[in-house]
Fold Tubby C-terminal domain-containing protein.
Amino acid sequence: MEQPNFRPPYPYAAPNESSNPYPLPPGGQAPYPPPYALPPGQAPYPPPPFQAPYALPPGQAPYGAVVPVPGQEPYSSTPISVVGPEFCTPYPLDLVIANKLLSSRKFSVKDINGNSMYKVKGKLFSLHARKVLLDCAGNTIVTFTKKIRTMHNRWHAFKGKSTDSKDLLFTVKKSSLIQFKTKLDVFLANNTKEEVSDFLVKGSWSECSCCIYLGESSTIVAQVRYIYIYTTDHFD
């Protein structure tokens, strides 16, 4: 008979006693309760809740630990400052970019509770060579300019209203000339050689969705997806 996985209402009887309803397994295991002998690598049953150390099966993470899906790294848990540390949060942040159906020149960036956070002036997807990101007070945070006559459609992002090279934050360009799906390389200002991208954008232009990865790794920094929401809203 196998040893039960619960504690009997009274201690085990001594070995070889016929009155013992819970016979001990062979191998000289000591009576219950502890201390008693355990097979190598086996933890006491049940394991003390939230108490270490106790043995875990190979490859099994402790209760509550985040286990990444094989082949995919978890979201980056370390804030990465590109524009400035004041725009970083120690937790994932969901934002909504919204615009009116008949107007593509003004965009409002809000949190999931509907609170305005940023604004975008200029057509987000157009041939115009200049766009700006503003805070709620109308202060320019980032200025985007497109380099004219480039095969890779290179864009530059500058801090504030500046377009001076000393205020360059990052550049974005197509990874290749011919693409069936969107793939963009992002290089920070100090990455002048541009041999390896600091961020990589992969997505689908037709679906208006993409993922932003940390360099050439599979660590996801952000995700973007397009949804239709019909609402009555006002943009300043």
In short: The mean pLDDT is 71. The CA atoms of residues 89 and 172 lie 23 Å apart. The domain at 85-224 is CATH 2.40.160.200 (Porin).
